[in-house]
């Protein structure tokens, strides 16, 4: 196997952190052995209902979008107030730091400034700018929607396997592209619906190693100035994977090979309506079974039920529940996963099981 130095150490690019709110101002230091300045922070209150609060360096501190709502970008002056060299700072806003409440923060790093003038470079038809890491296969891209068919540079240098879009200046659904499903359909992160067939999202056109295509739907390309954000991801061996599996309805569930020990798994049944997006991570469930789950499409408290449980293994994950959200027999699921450690490092060191 061959890895970059960074992907022998996934903590340089992704870390999950749990903390307890103090109701005032609090600097949250990530626990990993590697310092990481996050560029995208996703925060969720665990023990009481509250929104999934997303902040990134491109939109700036205090600017938040919420996955369980289709609302426009909101400003929380006492939300996430600073990105630090090894974490972030939060203020007194309940959704970020309510006193005595428990929280989880999922943190990703991109890190390199990106800008594309489409008319000058000949890449794409819509200008874009943001932050990108080709090493980690992740970019945060902001662009001005046109309301008509166009292409946008994403900076990854590889084909994206997952892209999440959000309109910032007005209400708009969270549209997402997933390679296993193809470009003729999309999924809504803010909804329990199954995949939706529509040509006005991506014009039935797959992303390339340089651009993604957006059509006329306001969820991916509403007309406006700097009003669209896209989180773009491509798989990196030993660090991230974006694929699909089929449930078997059995507590000895489907095993999904990733090639690494997962720190974070987001999944959704793509074939059935009224099923939740769900997140498991090794910070909230440090040992198997991984039962603690949160639903990006709703504001509910953290649930801990074996019906939606998984084992997070040294080389993948395995369904251990039988619920329709996670392992319905014959149903199709898409997922994205990020590593705690590669199965085997570039120097031949294997990871340990949980």
What structural class do you assign from the helix and strand content?
A: mainly beta
The helix content, as a percent range, equals under 10%
Number of strands: 28
Q: How would you state the average pLDDT, rounded? A: 95
- How many DSSP H or I helices? 6
Shape: globular
Strand content: 35-45%
Please tell me how large the radius of gyration is.
19 Å
Distance between the termini: 22 Å
Which parts are unreliable, with pLDDT below 50 for 5 consecutive residues or more? 1-6
Number of domains: 3
Largest sheet: 8 strands, antiparallel
Give the strand order, joined by hyphens, for the main sheet. Answer: 10-11-12-19-14-15-16-17
